[in-house]
Design goal:
189 residues; Ribosomal Protein S8, Chain: A, domain 1; alpha+beta
Length: 189
């Protein structure tokens, strides 16, 4: 099929015909005028994600009650503590027990009364969770100086951590990090 050319141009005849047909088709078309939006109209605000309602200030006497008799719990200073909430994988707890999850903060409760330790622990867990920390260490001691009462803080910390909603798992630390006198705590993400 041979292309016809207009004399004096390098444009094929079929292209010229198409261009002329197009111009004839759009001859009466007028451009649409651009309108500027009124300044008085409110712009649509982007939707923001709803934040969960913050829980009310915890009632520590209900959420983290003081332990009255630690000897009745049967926990001794050399017993290892361990807890995992439903849904936490066993491999995660194993990594926690081995000290393979980086410790991002630490709280030492040595020498504190049970009430003072509870207050500091509640504040520490709240700040750690709010700060996005995933794993923390809490040193409670083995309670060897508690005499016949047994390890008061160790028993209390065990109970408090089990009841705290942001605690997903905890286990006694490795010997280099305090052994049975400390726990690694895995917090809710």
């Amino acid at each position: 099929m041979a292309k016809h050319r207009n004399p004096g141009t390098d444009v094929p005849a079929s292209d010229v015909d198409d261009a002329e047909v197009f111009r004839a088709a759009v001859r009466d078309v007028k451009p649409i005028k651009q309108t500027v939006p009124d300044q008085g109209l409110a712009k649509v605000k982007p939707r923001t994600r709803r934040r969960r309602a913050e829980p009310a200030a915890p009632d520590l006497d209900v959420d983290m009650p003081l332990v009255s008799d630690s000897a009745a719990s049967g926990i001794t200073g050399s017993d290892a503590l361990s807890f995992q909430r439903a849904g936490v994988r066993t491999q995660v707890v194993r990594r926690l027990r081995r000290g393979l999850i980086p410790i991002e903060a630490e709280l030492d409760l040595h020498g504190l009364s049970q009430a003072a330790a509870r207050d500091q622990l509640a504040e520490f867990l709240a700040l750690s969770h709010a700060g996005g920390r995933r794993c923390v260490r809490i040193i409670h001691g083995k309670g060897f100086r508690s005499g016949a009462r047994g390890p008061v803080l160790k028993v209390a910390v065990d109970g408090w951590l089990r009841r705290h909603l942001n605690v997903m798992a905890f286990t006694s630390a490795r010997a280099i990090d305090g052994g049975t006198g400390a726990v690694y705590v895995l917090l809710r993400a």
